[in-house]
Design a protein that fits this description.
The protein is mostly beta strands. The protein is built from no helices and 28 strands.
């Protein structure tokens, strides 16, 4: 199970006018050397930190995933933990230390850290299962070196955990989550863990319904669901404990939301869209995500704290534009898909 691979879509704030003409923005496209050029292959850009470094993974011509780090000068560093047959790197902090996971030849997941100097250390959470589809997944790393993730036990149940840089391990389960296979507790990736230790948590109950939670550094949980939600997903949290995500309503409509620290939840829908998704929020409260037009094609957007939308599409993205994250200076990274179904990275700024 990989919650970060589920596309999340969003609808606009009530009474918002159509987006106004915007100043011209620059789009930079990139591909990791060695990325495959077949359908479903290519470059998947994930997180961007404030100095412009980007973390992600790419699929080669055999469909195998590998991790990468991209500098603002378009220099790439590729890596795989020992024993990996598929590497995914959803987490990175401002010092370029990374957290991620890989699966081995038996299909078992293992967490890993990659230090700022490139040293990779593998980690398996206590209680993690050792059969195919089980194991440990790291999602986040903050600027204190604290990591958060979840593991799948021998019954396929998900359990959350946080680990300090010194190695102190704390396991947790959100209140009310299920105890069956595929149920339990997970987190948002990339920006799911703040420097103070707050975590955006996603819980799955015994009916396989998703709910959002805020977990404080002290371990207190607050459960939430937007009004009308029948399934709530979380995408990220910022320094002010504002959480973004998306939810499905009873008619199958997909909407985004912003939840402020005081508990106020605002639905988000891009104007004239058929679906919308929020994937990240920065410290100022600016978020980014994707929306679907009337044909189902995906486009990117940035949403200001005041509710102003700026929409964009990567030139040539006939298969869609998929923003993944935004940093404090205002740059957005993500992936775009060409007419052959190949993924490519981009930076919009």
């Amino acid at each position: 199970m990989k919650t970060k691979s589920i596309l999340i879509l969003v609808f606009c704030f009530a009474l918002l006018a159509l987006p106004q003409a915007q100043a011209k923005h620059k789009v930079t496209k990139f591909d990791v050397p060695g990325a495959g050029t077949g359908p479903g292959q290519g470059t998947s850009s994930g997180g961007i930190v404030d100095d412009g470094f980007i973390v992600g993974w790419y699929y080669d011509s055999n469909g195998v995933a590998h991790g990468f780090l991209r500098s603002p000068a378009n220099k790439f560093t590729k890596f795989d933990p020992t024993g990996s047959v598929g590497t995914f790197t959803p987490g990175m902090n401002s010092a370029h230390a990374m957290a991620g996971y890989f699966f081995d030849s038996n299909g078992v997941y293992h967490g890993f850290w990659r230090s700022t100097k490139g040293k990779i250390t593998t980690y398996n959470a206590p209680g993690a299962g050792t059969a195919s589809g089980q194991g440990t997944i790291f999602e986040d790393i903050n600027n204190n070196g604290e990591t958060a993730g979840y593991y799948l036990d021998s019954n396929g149940v998900l359990h959350g955990f946080v680990r300090t840089a010194a190695g102190k391990y704390t396991e947790f389960d959100a209140p009310g989550v299920g105890t069956g296979k595929g149920q339990g507790t997970a987190e948002a990736g990339f920006d799911g863990l703040t420097d103070k230790g707050a975590i955006a948590v996603q819980g799955i109950d015994s009916n396989n319904v998703y709910h959002g939670y805020l977990r404080t550094p002290g371990g207190k949980f607050t459960e939430f669901d937007p009004t009308g939600s029948v399934n709530t997903g979380v995408s990220g949290i910022n320094v002010k404990n504002s959480i973004v995500g998306q939810y499905y309503d009873s008619a199958g409509g997909l909407h985004g939301f912003v939840r402020k620290a005081n508990g106020t939840i605002t639905p988000v829908n891009y104007p004239n869209s058929t679906a919308t998704s929020i994937s990240n929020i920065n410290s100022s409260g600016t978020s980014t995500g994707a929306y679907a037009d009337s044909t189902g094609l995906l486009h990117g957007f940035v949403l200001s704290p005041g509710g102003k939308f700026t929409g964009f599409s990567v030139p040539g993205a006939s298969g869609g534009t998929l923003p993944a994250s935004n940093n404090d200076p205002g740059a957005v990274t993500g992936s775009w898909v060409d007419s052959n179904g190949v993924f490519h990275g981009f930076v919009w700024q």
